[in-house]
Amino acid sequence: MIEMKDVWKTYPNGVMAVNGISVYIKKGEFVYVVGPSGAGKSTFVKMMYREERPTRGEISINGSNLAEMKEKKVPYLRRNMGIVFQDFKLLPSMTVFENVAFAMEVIEASKANIRKRVMNVLDIVRLKNKARFMPHELSGGEQQRVSIARAIVNSPAVLIADEPTGNLDIETSWEIMHILEEINERGTTVVMATHNREIVNNMRKRVIAIEGGRISRDEIRGRYGYES
Ligand code: ADP
Ligand code: ADP
């Protein structure tokens, strides 16, 4: 489902962020990506949703080759992919409902389908009662739940999360993790870059550790493995 073959990424300023990564992630897996700051985690996940292009190597997601994909095809790739960021990236002048509905309007879903599906995903993230709220009226954890609802509204095969709990306290982070776990149990592959040791050590999922742009560890029921 997600496959990288000898992938390298050197940024235009000469920084070698990823140095020969090969990895295979099966459909339905839950994978943590861990490692020290600057190790290349973010570059690794950004290449999965084609925010960054590899300098060399092959990346395929559900059979399409991302390294060679033309820019105009990228939106189609992202339709089958949910992306969650540390800073939520909600549209501040739209309500919760509209933020989630927007992702379905882009794919030209019908009004009736949008209404039904948006309320359904807001129910999954337990925010049905806040559909009319504006993002600034929500706590950080609630804003992240809206961004998760937006990420899953089109039923993507893959959910990529880059430090989704980075701005949240530990209790709120656990709420987010239970939602991501539930989404994974419904069949979505989840790849999550994180610094949250407590969460990684408690969940015991696959852990891919990156150091110096290479995979230093890949464990089926792994641990965080760093002191900070
Ligand atoms: P991590 O997510 O593990 O902290 P990153 O992938 O963000 O690591 O960064 C890996 C290396 O690439 C770091 O040295 C970082 O400074 C560098 N880097 C990241 N993004 C860019 C960029 N857009 N341009 C140049 N260098 C970058
Ligand atoms: P947290 O526990 O994450 O700090 P807050 O104290 O920010 O949460 O928010 C607690 C509750 O109050 C949340 O359910 C949030 O939706 C609501 N809330 C916070 N700020 C506002 C606001 N300006 N208008 C309406 N509701 C708000």
TrEMBL record:
Homodimer. Forms a membrane-associated complex with FtsX. GO terms for molecular function: ATP binding; ATP hydrolysis activity; transmembrane transporter activity. Residues 2-228 form the ABC transporter domain. One of its GO terms (biological process) is cell division. The keyword Endoplasmic reticulum does not apply. Belongs to the ABC transporter superfamily. It is a peripheral membrane protein. This is Cell division ATP-binding protein FtsE. GO terms for cellular component: plasma membrane. It comes from Alkalicoccus daliensis. Keywords: ATP-binding, Cell cycle, Cell division, Cell membrane, Membrane, Nucleotide-binding, Transport. InterPro entries: AAA+_ATPase, ABC_transporter-like_ATP-bd, ABC_transporter-like_CS, ABC_transpr_LolD-like, Cell_div_FtsE, P-loop_NTPase. It is found in: Cell membrane. Part of the ABC transporter FtsEX involved in cellular division. Pfam families: ABC_tran (PF00005).
